[in-house]
Write a structure and sequence with these properties.
Elements lengths: L18 E3 H8 L3 H9 L6 E3 L5 E5 H11 L5 H7 L16
Helix pairs in contact: 1-2, 1-4
Length: about 100
């Protein structure tokens, strides 16, 4: 009665790189991070928490593209968000280095 362990099909698992952080979305929309948090809490932007406790908030790229389409904002902002720093501690790729 040795049963094999259950296997997990990796196909339905989401791509871990297909998400955006709050700082990335805030950067692309030129809003404060607090405004993006309020949008997520209010349900205007579909977001989810990862990790234990308070965790971190992530916004799927598909949800962000849907938000852009629903609000009439340019779809190119999705690429801007993906290229933005994922943490507010990182410097923006579009700023000049400090001399």
């Amino acid at each position: 009665m040795n049963t094999p362990p259950p296997t997990i099909d990796p196909a339905p698992l989401a791509d871990p790189t297909d998400y955006l952080t709050v700082p990335q979305v805030a950067f692309a929309l030129r809003l404060s991070q607090e405004t993006v948090w309020r949008m997520a809490r209010g349900g205007r932007l579909d977001a989810y928490r990862v990790g234990n406790g308070r965790g971190q908030v992530r916004i799927s790229s598909a949800a962000f593209r849907a938000y852009l389409a629903a609000t009439g904002l340019p779809a190119g902002l999705s690429a801007v968000a993906a290229g933005a720093p994922s943490s507010s501690r990182e410097r923006s790729p579009w700023t000049k280095p400090r001399s």
